[in-house]
Write a structure and sequence with these properties.
The protein is an alpha/beta fold. About 50% of the residues lie in helices and about 10% in strands. Strands 2-1-3-4 form a 4-stranded parallel beta sheet, with helices on both faces. The protein has a 4-stranded parallel beta sheet with strand order 6-5-7-8. Helix 6 crosses helix 11 (about 290-300). The longest helix has 23 residues, at about 135-160. The protein is globular.
Length: about 400
Amino acid sequence: MKDLKHLFTLERLLDDVDNELVRKAQEDGRKCIGNICFQTPEVLMDLPGTFTIRLRAPRSGSMDMATYYMTSFLCEFSRAILERAIEGGFECLDALVAPDGCTMINRCVENMELLNTMPKENFYYQYLEVPMKDDDNGLNLYVSECRKKILQPLHDTFGIDISDDALRTAVENYNKVCRVINEIGDYRKEDNPRITGYEFHLITMASHVCPKDLLLPILEETLEELKTREPDEKPPYRARVAVVGSEIDDIDMIKLIEESGALVVADRYCYGSLPGRLEIPLNDEEDVLTQICRHYMTSSQCPRQMNYKKVQSRKDYIAKIAKEYKADGIIFEQMKFCDPWAYERVTGSFDLREKFNYPVLTIDRPYTVGISGQLRTRVQAFVESVEIKKIQGGK
């Protein structure tokens, strides 16, 4: 297929946290609020006068300093983020909001604070307590925490408007981006998709790390381009896969999978669009903040939520999207030493095989895969096994 017009632009935006759109927004006087997990509702930090970016550490190399402070038994994502902070890679931030999503992220952000890695005047940290169950008590906690730890500090420190009207405007702008990304993502359902998993990953990742209003014209132009894009007559892949699991912000991960013969058609992982780019519905009866928090709490597919209904629904959701996007198999991945996803990967992969009859490849991986020959070999072998299963009539 012909390369997308903005492919190089999207790759360049992902090269560094302090990318050109971040700098442009700050030149306009807007405050940059860092977030580090889906559990911190990003729409609450995209108010007029602010924008939010998700922390990541592209092109990570040595993590020696972070390992010194955090030990080698914590996941590489948390260590890579701390290492980048020590290097001065997040100095564009004006504040950072972190949830108690896992102890590793907590230790990472606490070390960032203790080591004084953020030089800006009036910079502050907030630690958000998020619910482990999506019930009424959990929602009350979530609303209270988001009001005290996100909205009120923005108003008190930077004078940001946190009224219901401002929140509704933020949701409206957020939904515009989600609609475009979802419409682009629907092309992955085609028998011969006109967009690759790598290209879609670039689009979704950019929406997490750039001011959304500045990125929207690029996304809209890409959508128009895709409407007339002709896919290759003979698809260059041998199997369609859904990739599910923990955090993936390394663009080389998806590229490696597709170079191994598997087209990534669904992205149920942290930083993905399923369910990370669902629109937020609003009504006129309830408080806007409550509606936003309910959306994030109920749509979350994070294994941190431990109630039985959620545990079962996560597996059902993966099977649902695998069927909807016509996946032949599922790659279930986790970051090495990621405790929540380690347990989820074991139980989830078993159910997906035994209950839903999907071929499943399970892997634990480093933060950056590079050109990992071992991982490439495993994906290639999985693709061959999927092909054999199809030849044998699904057995």
